[in-house]
Structure formats: C-alpha cells, structure tokens
Amino acid sequence: MATLLLTNIGKLIQTRQTTENPLSGEDLKSLPSLDNAWLLIDQDTIEDFGSMSTEVPRADEVLDVNGDWVFPGFCDSHTHIVFAESREKEFVMRLQGKSYEEIAAEGGGILNSARKLRETSEDDLYMSAMGRLEEVIGYGTAAIEIKSGYGLTFDSEVKMLRVIKRLKDTYPVSVKATFLGAHAIPTAYKDNRQDYIKLICDEMIPYVAGEGLADYCDVFCDRGFFTPQETEFILEAGWKHGLKPKIHANELGITGGVQAGVAQNAISVDHLEAMSQVEIDLLKGSKTLPTLLPSTSFFLGLPYAQGRKMADEGLPIVLASDYNPGSTPSGKMSFVLSLACLKMKLLPEEAFNAATINGAFAMEVENEYGSITKGKRASIYLTKPMNDLAFVPYAFGSDLIHTIIIDGEVWDRK
Ligand SMILES: [Zn+2]
User: Fold this and answer.
1) What pLDDT does 99 receive?
2) Domain of 28: which CATH number?
3) How many domains are there within the chain?
4) pLDDT at 288 over 70
5) Secondary structure class of 36 (helix, strand, coil)
6) How many A from CA of 106 to the centre of ligand 1?
7) Which of 406, 405, 412 is nearest to 63 (CA)?
8) Residues 6+ apart with CB under 8 A from 283
9) How far does residue 95's CA lie from ligand 1's centre (Å)?
10) How does pLDDT run across 238-274, given as a tens digit for each residue?
C-alpha cells in the first residue's frame, strides 16, 4: 500500500506546521487542532492534512473514520520496562505497614530486582519486556525510552541493553536506550563504592557506547544513591563516549541533582518531586527539560511535583510514565494525563503537549514524533468522537482508544 487517506476525522489533534522548540508558557496551553479533517499518509509518513471543506486528495486506500478523533501517539520519555519480575508481593507488604528494610530482607527493592535479573536469561527478559512494550503501544505510545539499571554488573547491564536493542529492531515504534548502571550501589560494592563507579566509567560506558547499545547515560542522583559529584563524574565519562545525560533527580529530597544535570547539559532531569525556587530558576536558564512522573507519586503516596508552578514559571515540562516494577507498575499515559490534571492542576491541553511534543524533545525525536506535522511518522491513534478533549483525562479509567496506526499500518492489538 502506498497511500492511505483518513477522511471525516471529527477532530485532528495537535496539528502543527513546525515544531522547533519544546513548548512552554502560553504555547504549552495551546493545543492546535482541526475540525472535520482529512489526513493523508504515504507509507510510514504524514504526507499532508487539511479540512474536508477544502479539496480532498486521492489515495490508494480511503478510510472513512466517521467523526472519530485522531491523536498523535504518546512520547513516553522515561521507563524501565525490562525487568525480571513484578513486585506485587512487596506491594502487599507495604499495605501491611512493613518497612523498606523488612521488605528488602524478604526479597524486595532494587537490589533484589537486580539479583533476579542476573538469574534470568536474555530470551526470558526479552519475552516479558515484549509483552510490556505491546501493552503500552496499545495505550497509544509511539515513542519510548527504556533504561537498564537492574543489572548492576557488566554482564547484566549489557544483557538488559541487548534486550532493549532487540525491542528497537523488532517493533515499529521509536525506542531510545539509556544506560543506567548507576541506579544503585550493588551489595558487593557497598564498602567500596568508588570501585563500582570506576567499573561504570572505565568498563561499562566504553563498551556500551562502542557497541551502540545506548543513546543516553543516566544516574540516580539522590539521597542514599549517587552524590552530585559522583553523578557529574559518571556523566562526564558518558559524554566522552557520546552518551548524553538524562538523570533521576530530586525524587527523595533537594539533593543537588538539578544542579548536576544542568552543569552537565543533561537532555532532561526527571522526577523533581522536591524542588525549590533555586532549582526552578536554574532550569529556566538552561536547555535541560524537567520531566515529571506523577504515577510514581500516586503509587508510592509521595508528594507530587509542582507541575502547575513549573508551567507558570515558563518551564517546558514533560510528562512520562516511569513504568517500572517497584514504584510505577503502569505505562498508561492517559492515566499520567489524569494525574497531571488532578494532582498537579495542569490543564488538559498542557498535559497533552507535555506527553507528546515535549516528550519527543526529551528523546530527541521531535522531528519524527509528537505532533501531526507533514513529514513526521504516521503513528497515531483513534477514539470515538468526544464533546471535549478534557474527556480523556477526565475519564481516567476508560480505554478510549479503538484503533492504533503505527508507521502508517494498523497495529493489531493482541
Ligand atoms: Zn526512573
């Protein structure tokens, strides 16, 4: 099939001629759309779009969508979907009031996830991650970032990144890989953390970069994990090998992560539940994007990042899922939108922009994803007609998507 034309689109959402910068301020509040539209797809690319009241082009195949709404796929710029085992037992222990130490002693936490991952074969890891990737494609995600970080040894980190590479090579969605060897200090190095940092910088980063297994380098810069100085040291090693930084910062406290990220020209600093005006002002003067992960606050019962304040201060905020077994066992981006609206007081238009075009910038895929723009990938989803866009975050438990098109082809939902 060469060309596909969608006709009688009730509303075509996020239509833009160009997308040159991440959106902030008044621009973040505006979500351009076209009523009663057509969309022409050539192979895997958006060829053109327009109003049904103007001249409608011809195509090899025509799909009359009868008033359905068409959206660009979500861009989820922060996930950890490669892991060995879900952690619902730990969830129940938490409900029973057990402490973090008790949970870790009974087999929970990042270090136990790491132990299980080391024992799991690459094929088994791939099979389970594949299921999660297909799940989130079904929720409308068209571009995703996936991190390593549950290996914490040379071989296991490489194993995770190989799994991510296989996902990238197999699926038609955009997959960006992030090396997160600095997710935690493994038990074996608890008394000599410098040696683990040396292993990351001298062995893991050169190998991972040399094999083309990662696009970015991440560090969990927070209380009890890596210090800002250690973070900058690791990120510099990443830069030397062409891995740009994207980091975990200020989840557990105001601990210098934003400063380290900005100093290292990070693409994004993610989490930011704990922020003061100093960090907000620092981000305002930088190109580093603030990425907020409200599902994590929801699941752990932590304070939410100050999304409203950051948006009002003119920051180009990004929303992502943080899908992972410990703190966010969900990659449903429409639920992220609901939380961003309800808990951070973002407007639906701001939340959509943060989860599409700004998310695309946080993965450097803004020329291919994040909006309905000529020349971008035809990775979109369809819903039944709605009265208002706000229905998506409002109807928080509903599954509104009925058809997904990835690179111009209908995705068969499993
Ligand atoms: Zn994370």
Assistant:
1) 82
2) 2.30.40.10
3) 2
4) yes
5) strand
6) 23
7) 405
8) 258, 262, 269, 290, 310, 315
9) 22
10) 999 999 999 999 998 999 999 999 999 999 999 999 9
Q: What is the mean pLDDT of residues 275-291?
A: 97
Question: Would you place residue 414 in the very low, low, confident or very high pLDDT band (cuts 50, 70, 90)?
Answer: low
DSSP class of residue 203?
I
Q: Are residues 239 and 220 in the same domain?
A: yes
Query: Looking at the predicted structure, is the pLDDT value of residue 106 above 90?
Result: no
CB within 8 Å of 202: residues ≥ 6 apart: 237
Residue 394 is part of which domain span?
Answer: 3-72+371-410
Burial of 239-267, coded b for 16+ CB within 10 Å and e otherwise, reads eebebbbbbbbbbbebbbbbbbbbbbebb
Please give the distance, rounded to the nearest whole angstrom, from the Cα atom of residue 78 to the centre of ligand 1: 6
Give pLDDT, residue 303: 95
User: Separation of 322 CA from ligand 1 center, angstroms?
Assistant: 5
How large is the average pLDDT for residues 328-349? 98
396 pLDDT band, cuts 50/70/90, is very high
Rounded Cα distance, 135 and 121, in Å: 22
Two tokens at 322?
């943080």
Helices (H) and strands (E) in the chain, counts: 17, 16
Query: Could you tell me which residue, 103 or 384, shows the higher pLDDT?
Result: 384
Note whether residue 366 is domain-resident: no
Q: Quote the mean pLDDT of the chain.
A: 96
Question: What token pair was written down for 239?
Answer: 């830069």
Cα of 270 from ligand 1 centre, angstroms: 8
Provide the token pair at 218.
């991440």
Ligand 1 centroid to Cα of residue 5, in Å, is: 39
Torsion angles phi and psi, residue 34, rounded to 5: -125, 125
Output the CA 33–ligand 1 centroid distance in Å: 32
CATH of the domain at 346: 3.20.20.140
